[in-house]
Specification:
binds flavin mononucleotide, single chain, 28% helix, 511 residues, alpha+beta
Length: 511
């Protein structure tokens, strides 16, 4: 199938444009915090704030500012059950705006990353010999990204003896939460059959100083890997990293295909390999520059009630049984910062992480669906409820082909409602999409109800993890699609009239 992407966003020239001034890999979370601080993107909170509910109240208020507000560094956090601040700062909302999200990935403009992915998917093959020679360094660069294991790292400067999770300022976010939860962990596992690493972001409920829940959904990597250990009756080793270059935690949340190492992807994004150190009590590696590393294991067959948890749906996810993580060691930097996020009624910080994913993964969607011009996961849709897709329609039923493909593409399989629109519609303008949807759709002819996997957090699914999906063909209809009445033109003013009105408005000082 030919891959067509708009020529203006093609290849190396575009990549170079983004790369010139922007490239910057952080050596650690502290460096990112400094950058936020120096550029006025960080609010330092010196007064004591409680890990129980109070941090959420602050963070939620900040995240609801238009554009996401600023990052918050709580310098004096009172741990749950204590009266005095613990001395470990808590960082929240670091990813919570388009600007900071791009900075977290080391670029000024997020489009620089999909541009690099496009250049790999469809490299511009030079015609003459000299240009071919010039390409060699670019190809060599491909080999530079895999993670490297090093002898030591700041994440092991201090060994907590004995390990005790209650020493960390883990927050209880919402009133009906079952307890305190780690919310930004990089959960590292290895597949039993071939040792391939997976890094996922799964919340972890603290049960006591040595155990947590492991809330990996059945569709996600960690859960898939555990299945193999369960079959073999073997204990699964798990390492949890907190912090490091902010690209690391983002990568743990990115919907990479099974078998692609998130730390390889992180190396690609930051254009510098991730450095890993060997864990002390388990046979896994973890990022050398992390703030904390928590080592441990999950026993096959063991589960425990987890939740409820005020979730990114804006509702509490219900209690359910999940695997249990047993801690064997905790190491950390000398002066660690605890990274945290709060999820809840949208938009929250995770909307911006999802936005980065939406932008970065567009070229991969276009590889299999070249007719897709753009798509959007609006904040109100909390990633899986609404997907708006803009296509270049070429044949009858084209919108149905696209929605069916979306339901087969990685984590887009969870999409509950898919709306397909024509190329003139701005999919990032939810109000415009709803306007077009209402006007262009004939409920029976232009909708499709099908079945498939549903997100674990979708409380409307009658059975957990399985249910219906609905597609809306909101493109203009053709006679070949059974529309035998004339289709109306869109109302658009003549350019010349607009230009004249513009000029007059300027003269009158109205614009
Ligand atoms: C802040 C945040 C919290 C998340 N919490 C969970 C969670 O508790 N369980 C889960 O399965 N996925 C959670 N996710 C989504 C996964 O991290 C995401 O789908 C990721 O791609 C899974 O990777 P995997 O397929 O390698 O497991 C969360 C994402 C974010 C951004």
């Amino acid at each position: 199938m030919p891959v067509t992407v708009p020529s203006e966003i093609c290849y190396h020239k575009t990549v170079e444009r983004y790369r010139e001034a922007d490239r910057m890999a952080y050596t650690n979370l502290g460096e990112f915090i400094r950058r936020l601080d120096e550029s006025g993107e960080l609010v330092r909170v010196a007064q004591p704030v409680r890990a129980e509910l109070e941090i959420t109240a602050w963070a939620d208020r900040m995240m609801k500012h238009p554009g996401g507000g600023k990052a918050l560094l709580f310098e004096n956090v009172v741990r749950i059950g204590e009266k005095e601040p613990c001395g470990i700062p808590v960082l929240v909302n670091a990813y919570g705006s388009k600007r900071r999200m791009a900075w977290a990935l080391g670029v000024e403009d997020i489009e620089g990353i999909p541009a690099r992915i496009r250049s790999l998917l469809k490299p511009e093959i030079p015609q003459d010999f000299v240009d071919k020679i010039k390409m060699i360094p670019q190809l060599v660069e491909l080999t530079k990204w895999p993670p490297r294991t090093v002898g030591s790292g700041p994440c092991q400067e201090v060994v907590m003896d004995p390990p005790d999770l209650t020493q960390l300022p883990v927050c209880k976010c919402w009133p009906k939460d079952g307890g305190a939860f780690f919310t930004l962990p990089q959960v590292i596992t290895k597949r039993l059959s071939d040792g391939v690493r997976n890094v996922g972001m799964y919340r972890m409920q603290v049960y006591d100083g040595r155990t947590t829940g492991m809330h990996w959904h059945i569709h996600h990597g960690g859960s898939g890997y555990l299945d193999e250990y369960v079959k073999a009756g073997k204990r699964m080793e798990v390492a949890v990293a907190l912090g490091g270059d902010p690209v690391l935690a983002y990568s743990a949340s990115a919907p990479l295909p099974d078998g692609i190492d998130e730390y390889l992807f992180a190396g690609f994004v930051r254009e510098k390999p991730v450095e890993l150190v060997k864990c002390r009590t388990i046979d896994l590696e973890a990022p050398a520059d992390a703030e904390y590393i928590i080592e441990g294991y999950v026993d096959p067959g063991e589960s425990r009630l987890e939740g409820p948890f005020g979730d990114h749906t804006g509702f509490y996810s219900l209690e359910d049984r999940y695997p249990v993580f047993h801690v064997t060691a905790i190491t950390h930097r000398k002066n660690p910062v605890y990274p945290h996020t709060v999820v809840g009624p949208p938009p929250m910080e995770d909307f911006y992480m999802g936005w980065a994913t939406e932008r970065i993964f567009l070229p991969l969607i276009q590889m299999v669906l070249p007719e897709v011009i753009d798509y959007s996961l609006p904040a109100e849709g909390i990633f899986h409820n609404w997907v708006f897709v803009k296509i270049r329609k070429r044949y009858p039923g084209h919108a149905f082909k696209v929605m069916n493909a979306i339901w087969g593409l990685g984590q887009l399989m969870f999409s509950k409602f898919v709306v397909v629109v024509d190329e003139w519609v701005d999919v990032h303008d939810t109000s415009q999409v709803l306007w077009v949807l209402g006007n262009h759709c004939e409920p029976e002819r232009d909708t499709l109800v099908t079945k498939g996997p549903r997100d674990a957090l979708d409380h409307a699914a009658p059975i957990a993890h399985f249910g219906n999906k609905m597609g809306f063909d909101a493109t203009g209809k053709w006679p070949e699609e059974g529309h035998n009445r004339p289709w109306p033109d869109r109302i658009v003013m003549d350019d010349s009239v607009l230009r004249k009105a513009d000029e007059t408005w300027r003269k009158l000082g109205l614009s």
